[in-house]
């Protein structure tokens, strides 16, 4: 993935399984100084739009075949909050 930095465009290798909000450090790629600082990049995941029949079918197939619930952590957090409130 190409990304702009103060020193120009760099090619980033995004680790597999990276999630929204993960921070990557680019050592020595921050503001120019002696020595240059580090640049921190926060990942923002963007999916291509499903604006064609083929794209919609692909997304639907992925939803059927992949065991993935993007809201699973929310239920865990709610249960923990309920547990905390019950003890109060």
From TrEMBL:
> What GO molecular functions are on record for this protein?
unfolded protein binding
Domain Chaperone DnaJ C-terminal, first and last residues per copy: 2-48
Q: Matching InterPro entries, A to Z?
A: DnaJ_C, HSP40/DnaJ_pept-bd
Gene Ontology annotations of biological process type: protein folding
One Pfam family assigned to this protein is DnaJ_C
Q: What is this protein called?
A: Chaperone DnaJ C-terminal domain-containing protein
| Organism, scientific name | marine sediment metagenome
């Amino acid at each position: 993935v190409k990304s702009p930095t103060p020193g120009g465009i760099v090619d980033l290798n995004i680790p597999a399984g990276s999630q929204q909000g993960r921070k990557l450090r680019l050592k020595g790629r921050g503001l120019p100084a002696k020595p240059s600082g580090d640049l921190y990049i926060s990942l923002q995941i963007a999916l291509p739009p499903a604006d064609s029949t083929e794209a919609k079918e692909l997304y639907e197939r992925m939803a059927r075949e992949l065991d993935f619930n993007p809201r699973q952590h929310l239920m865990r957090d709610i249960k923990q909050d309920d547990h905390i409130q019950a003890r109060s």
